Amino acid sequence: MATTKRTARRGKTGNDAGTDSRKEPQVQLETEELISLYQKMVEIRLFEDACQRGFRQGKIGGYLHLYIGQEAVATGFLESHRSGDRIITAYRDHAHALLLGATPRQIMAELYGKGTGLVKGKGGSMHLFDAENDFYGGYGIVGGHIPLGVGMAFAAAYNKEDSIVQLYLGDGAINNGAFHEAANLSGLWGQDGLNPCLWILENNQYGMGTSVERATANTNLASKFDAYGIEHEQVDGMDVVAVIESARRASERVRESGTPFAVEALTYRIVPHGAADFLERYRTKEEVKKWRERDPIGLLEQRLEDAGVEEIAIAKIREEKQDIVADAVKFAEESPVPELSELTTDVYASEMHVADAG
Ligand SMILES: Cc1ncc(C[n+]2csc(CCOP(=O)(O)OP(=O)(O)O)c2C)c(N)n1
Ligand SMILES: [Mg+2]
Fold first, then answer.
1. Is the pLDDT reported for residue 136 higher than 50?
2. How far is the centre of ligand 2, averaged over its atoms, from the C-alpha of 10 (Å)?
3. Of the candidates 90, 95, 50, which has an alpha carbon nearest to the alpha carbon of residue 328?
4. How far is CA 175 from CA 84, 85, 232, in A?
5. Whether this model's pTM surpasses 0.70
6. pLDDT tens, 216-245?
7. Ligand 1 atom with least separation from CA of 170
8. Closest by alpha carbon to 87, among 1, 10, 164?
9. Which of 12, 48, 121, 332 is deepest in the core (most CB within 10 A)?
10. Which residue among 13, 65, 67, 142 is best mutated to probe the pocket of ligand 1, counting the most ligand atoms within 8 A of its Cβ?
11. What's the pLDDT score for residue 276?
């Protein structure tokens, strides 16, 4: 009985390919803006492809989660980023760091564990950090970063800054207790203008192998913010133009009011969850195919074509980005491993104390 029910529910998951949130955006972007978005998204896609290859070749250690299929979300929201705003996310973090200004070289070298990496080869894929460019991580514990994001938003208001926080989280993380405690405080403090937090829920339909339907009885994830007095909306997370429209409106509102707002971006992780997810038994090939038809890069290419950009110009962008990524891989491969002396830097205690064994 339970099995039948579960199979039936699993069949529903993601099969609407985000239909509910889909409407043609009103915002009009210049062709140059569309091209710039395409450059960013293609760079992310090719960078992630290269990471996958490096991992399979055994050159990237630790763990690896790719952003393939979700590029429109961070690209669209970070278009509204203003210098001084703080960005925080979980472990699927390469795109966010790239978009904020870390170079492909720095990030690839980090994944290769090299001393030239963004955090000197000590963090790896899940722990990118780049405060100079407003990026506050990169966290491996699901839900662990959410209270930090709300706290950063409180600090910004307390210090009378004009900045906001973009707090990214997954559909899996929203069921974690840390989300509920933090969202409660965010809504509460927001009543006094003390929580300029833009919650960005990246609903990619799965938390590892668990679909949204199998994780929660209330599958309208945006509505979970109601419990904490936080207003919200949904957006088609595969269409970067729709994301931009929502992001501009939402971030302005949060900035002006100091009050949190949540956007659920309906998106899809086209690739496996992470390095150990070989079989993908939790979803069907047909489902993945259906979402691939709305690949965010493909949708943007369509918009470029509609705007009169020629295929040759689009292909040239891909070639340029391929070169940039190839250069990053070469740089990572040729970079030295960290100096041994680095073992005791960036740690809380400056000397190593070995427990007195007797
Ligand atoms: C506290 C905690 N529990 C479990 C895990 C194992 N884990 C890693 S990723 C993940 C799924 C999270 O899904 P979601 O928030 O939807 O993010 P996505 O991977 O889809 O980007 C889980 C359960 C973890 N890292 N931390
Ligand atoms: Mg997810």
1. yes
2. 15
3. 50
4. 30, 26, 17
5. yes
6. 999 999 999 999 999 999 999 999 999 999
7. 15
8. 164
9. 332
10. 142
11. 80
CATH, domain 31-338, list 3.40.50.970, 3.40.50.1980, 3.20.20.10, 3.20.20.70: 3.40.50.970
Distance 154 CA to ligand 2 centre (A): 26
Taking all residues of the chain, what is their mean pLDDT, rounded to a whole number?
Answer: 93
The ligand that comes nearest to the alpha carbon of residue 274 is: 1
Q: How far is the CA of 209 from the centre of ligand 2 (A)?
A: 9
Q: Which of 150, 186, 145, 137 is nearest to 169 (CA)?
A: 145
Using an 8 Å Cβ cutoff, are 57 and 136 in contact?
no
**Interval 30-46: pLDDT, tens:** 999 999 999 999 999 99
What value does the mean pLDDT take over residues 277-283? 91
**Which tokens belong to 7?**
């199979």
Spell out which residues have Cβ within 5 A of ligand 2, the ion.
170-172, 204, 207
Q: Ligand 1: residues whose CB is within 6 Å?
A: 92, 140-142, 170-173, 204, 206-208, 269, 273
